[in-house]
Amino acid sequence: MSVGGTLTRRSLFVGATAILLSGCAATARPTPKPVVVEPPPPVKGSVPAMYQAMPNEPFPIPEVNVSEVDPKFWRQEVDYPTQERPGTIIVDTPAKYLYHVLPGQRAMRYGIGVGREGFAWSGRAVVAYKRKWPRWTPPDEMVARQPKLEPYSIKNGGMGPGLKNPLGARALYIHKDGKDTLYRIHGSPEARSIGKAVSSGCIRMLNQDVVYLHDQVRDGSPIVVIPDPSKAHLAKS
């Protein structure tokens, strides 16, 4: 067979293959629009990049023990229809979620730990200011309940920053009508507290999450704290 003949058969073969492939492409179903889904359960021994160690912090933050955090409480962007303007923080106390509202009816969602019964706070306020590696000064009422905290009282200057500081790596300070509510959004190394009611009123987050949130929020941003209906009579508004 001549070279020309070989090329002709090859051309016919390639052409036929192209027709078949184009036929598959023409009859394929359109790609469905992506939807937000819960992250898969963690593979044993694996840690998502967002929860890995942060060695460059002034006090290096260890990786999160993700086995102690239900995957539904991992940080993720979700659809979130709301009338609140972008930049608003919404704390859904009953669901144990914090939403930072984004444009386009979207929000970044975080799992949180909230106040125990009797210490819950709800209402509208603002994030007056933020602090990296803040000092912790328990209010006098807390010191009265827990005398062992006296060394860290306001008069004694509080507790210095560090991994053992209850405010963790970052804190957002909540004010209402120009006054400090004494409630904070802050970090915590206690992964197992996320999704539970464990703190004395403050809103706690994983340290990695509060570092990320801190960088996204501006001073003066509005915050809305939704009360737990079952404890509405105990909430301070």
UniProtKB/TrEMBL annotation:
Active site (catalytic residues): H186 (proton donor/acceptor), C202 (nucleophile)
Gene3D superfamilies: L,D-transpeptidase catalytic domain-like
Assigned keywords, A-Z: Cell shape, Cell wall biogenesis/degradation, Glycosyltransferase, Hydrolase, Peptidoglycan synthesis, Signal, Transferase
Keyword Hydrolase part of the UniProt annotation: yes
Residue stretches making up the L,D-TPase catalytic domain: 87-226
GO molecular function, one term: peptidoglycan L,D-transpeptidase activity
Cleaved signal peptide residues: 1-27
InterPro entries with a match to the protein in the record: LD-transpeptidase, LD_TPept_cat_dom, Transpep_catalytic_dom
Domain of life: Bacteria
Pathway: Cell wall biogenesis; peptidoglycan biosynthesis
GO biological process terms held by the UniProt record: cell wall organization; peptidoglycan-protein cross-linking; regulation of cell shape
Protein's UniProt keywords contain Aminoacyl-tRNA synthetase: no
Pfam short name (any one): YkuD
Entry GO terms, CC: extracellular region
Similarity field: Belongs to the YkuD family.
Protein name in the entry: L,D-transpeptidase
Originating organism: Ensifer oleiphilus
Organism classification: Bacteria, Pseudomonadati, Pseudomonadota, Alphaproteobacteria, Hyphomicrobiales
